């Protein structure tokens, strides 16, 4: 009888000890499906060697990364941009982006989104160029192209090559329209110590470097009336610029003192009459 009582007491103690142990232990999970029961005080240490406090779940970022997280931390990761299914980043003009499930990529492509930033940027730029050409703003079109080339820095990028070809088309169209190798972009008149000065911004739209130019324009006053040379000559002014280093598509500003045209407020009818190229050839209107 005494032995039976002793065994019973030992069994009760074992059960109580077991309950205490399990009450202060935690089941942890591995990435390959294993389970491990550890003391609560060891949980953090086990986390550092790849164990989780809940069955782990694979999560995905919009840029293609993957991360295995504890199942009880899913919401925390969702709040900082992780997802429960493979995701892809889609792009639209004007730097818009959106993360979508990979299986929905084609649906977004069908409504105007793109799978790369470069493709979205290209489709942002082309309509701008087309609009500039539609209003014969050739200078604006080239400026748009220049800005695009700075963004498409990779010379092997197919979009970079297409924009370069677009520049050539715009330049050729511009040159054929104005029928001269240099285009006048803008002009204005200033007063320098009582001497009127004509300021003209020029752009080289030829394929060669320019070393000198001759041009002509007409002077007008505030009432839009021709200003004649010392009051009785012609309103036409002939200008000359030399020792230039004027590369293809470069923009330069030049000014001429309008002696004898003191009432000039604006200039019109700017025409390039001769151009000397760095290779020794000369273009004449």
UniProtKB/TrEMBL annotation:
Residues 1-23 form the signal peptide. Keywords: Signal. This is DUF4430 domain-containing protein.
């Amino acid at each position: 009888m005494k032995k039976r009582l002793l065994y019973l007491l030992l069994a009760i103690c074992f059960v109580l000890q077991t309950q205490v142990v399990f009450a202060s232990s935690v089941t942890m999970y591995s990435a390959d499906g294993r389970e491990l029961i550890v003391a609560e005080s060891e949980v953090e240490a086990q986390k550092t060697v790849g164990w989780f406090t809940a069955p782990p779940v694979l999560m995905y970022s919009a840029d293609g990364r993957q991360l295995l997280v504890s199942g009880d931390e899913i919401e925390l990761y969702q709040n900082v941009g992780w997802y429960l299914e493979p995701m892809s980043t889609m792009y639209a003009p004007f730097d818009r982006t959106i993360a979508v499930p990979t299986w929905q990529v084609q649906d977004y492509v069908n409504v105007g989104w793109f799978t790369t930033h470069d493709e979205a940027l290209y489709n942002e730029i082309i309509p701008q160029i087309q609009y500039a050409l539609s209003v014969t703003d050739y200078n604006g079109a080239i400026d748009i192209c220049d800005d695009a080339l700075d963004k498409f820095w990779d010379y092997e990028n197919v979009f970079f090559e297409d924009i370069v070809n677009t520049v050539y088309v715009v330049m050729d169209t511009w040159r054929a329209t104005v029928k001269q190798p240099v285009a006048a972009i803008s002009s204005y008149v200033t007063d320098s110590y009582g001497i009127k000065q004509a300021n003209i911004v020029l752009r080289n739209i030829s394929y060669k470097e320019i070393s000198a130019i001759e041009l002509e324009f007409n002077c007008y006053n505030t009432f839009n009336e021709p200003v004649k040379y010392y009051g009785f000559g012609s309103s036409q002014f002939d200008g000359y610029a030399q020792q230039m280093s004027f590369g293809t598509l470069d923009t330069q500003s030049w000014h001429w003192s309008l002696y004898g045209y003191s009432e000039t407020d604006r200039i019109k009818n700017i025409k390039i009459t001769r151009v000397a190229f760095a290779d020794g050839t000369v273009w004449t209107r």
